[in-house]
């Protein structure tokens, strides 16, 4: 064997396990899911009936799907700006010359690594109308509490608060990395010119941070569209009172694993993918305004 | 004066973030009668450590722990080994089709994992892997993210060390595990912590694959326990506490790598 052939062989041998596993559990399912989405199939029966685009048509016509889409969109619209703003604030604070920065950073990051299953149990108690911590804290400022979990009006508030709590540290850490990449010199020359803190933020920090903000905007939006677990752990096995917490992924999960409509669920997964994809494209059209010069 | 403002804001933020943890901890040692009160007290009249024992005994938590540990450790071990091999190949070896294969792998990162859920469930059913450890583990033992992370690092290593290894007649596997990996400690620790935390917390997949408590991992076991005991909050909080502690310990040990690894991903 020539040296070249041997090299190629060695490379492929080392790649083999990875390629086999990714092929079977990632690439094949991506294709297979798309194919199944054109069939009516309950997984048990040996016959798959080809129905063309019918699954997709039914999904788009299903009032429950519209409900799920509306709820998910509302979650995205409330969650993304809240977590980005609070995360940015935390990062700016952490970037000041302070003691215990590492300890603050680690603490803020803690919810991001603990499982939603455990923290969800704590939060469902926090939202308890009679004995919950939230109502107790509100009573300090004279607000009379409500039964947060059993009223459809507050479902989105609960989900967003829980979501922000979990993710704020992650956003802050990435913003902080972005902030620390900005050269001190800009601020020094601005100080010489007598610029205020706000003007420094507006004219130096904000534009130079835009690649980071843009990355986080894309990422948090994509993640927010896939909200599921928060609903599942806060509300048990129902998507909130009056389906007020029914999200796109919850919808897909129900169709697939409660009703075993596999074709339908695969179609729902692809609709979710398509929605995320469209929003990503929309946000990418923003990228012209991102400043990559720094 | 400005400093005081900054600390004040940070303390408020930190309280918001660790408040729920503090409450979890304090409730986990409260006697039954002091749990559901309109005015919560931070400290119980006496510490009721029995809650931990009672919670531990009311569900097979030992089994859940073992499952979580097995699943996370095996997944992490394979992910690092296979990921390092793939990363080395992409970073340091030449072969036919390299660019195309790498691009295909990167493209799979764009597809949300949820799309894979149903076809993978079907595959597992065909393999008879529902309610098995291999069903829980095998689909997740390689991740493109790990490959990508390590490849970036391997590419930045100086060519000289690879030339020296070549001169010694060291094959790619020996070069990788004998020389490159020891040099790449920060990057594989990052990958390991991210993978371990991810598999420890995995929920949806376990929910689907495990239909019997024997194969539950901690998060699924915990949610199941919670719907069984309802509002016995002191035991619930005790269970929640002991289920997050191993992870918090792993995180605190590896946090420097973990947080910096996550931060690096954000500015790449």
From TrEMBL, chain A:
This is Sugar ABC transporter permease. Keywords: Cell membrane, Membrane, Transmembrane, Transmembrane helix, Transport. InterPro entries: ABC_transporter_permease (IPR051393), MetI-like (IPR000515), MetI-like_sf (IPR035906). The keyword Transmembrane helix applies. Belongs to the binding-protein-dependent transport system permease family. The chain crosses the membrane at residues 12-39, 73-96, 108-126, 156-179, 214-235, 262-282. It is found in: Cell membrane. Its main location: membrane. PANTHER family: ABC TRANSPORTER PERMEASE PROTEIN, INNER MEMBRANE ABC TRANSPORTER PERMEASE PROTEIN YCJO. It is a multi-pass membrane protein. Gene3D superfamilies: MetI-like. Residues 69-283 form the ABC transmembrane type-1 domain. The keyword Transmembrane helix applies.
Automatic annotation (TrEMBL), chain B:
PANTHER family: ABC TRANSPORTER PERMEASE PROTEIN MG189-RELATED, ABC TRANSPORTER PERMEASE PROTEIN MG189-RELATED-RELATED. It is a multi-pass membrane protein. Residues 65-254 form the ABC transmembrane type-1 domain. The chain crosses the membrane at residues 7-26, 64-88, 100-118, 130-150, 187-212, 232-254. It comes from the Bacteria. Belongs to the binding-protein-dependent transport system permease family. InterPro entries: MetI-like (IPR000515), MetI-like_sf (IPR035906). The keyword Cell membrane applies. Its main location: membrane. PROSITE patterns: ABC_TM1 (PS50928). It is found in: Cell membrane. This is Carbohydrate ABC transporter permease. Gene3D superfamilies: MetI-like. The lineage of its organism: Bacteria, Bacillati, Bacillota, Bacilli, Bacillales. The keyword Cell membrane applies. Keywords: Cell membrane, Membrane, Transmembrane, Transmembrane helix, Transport.
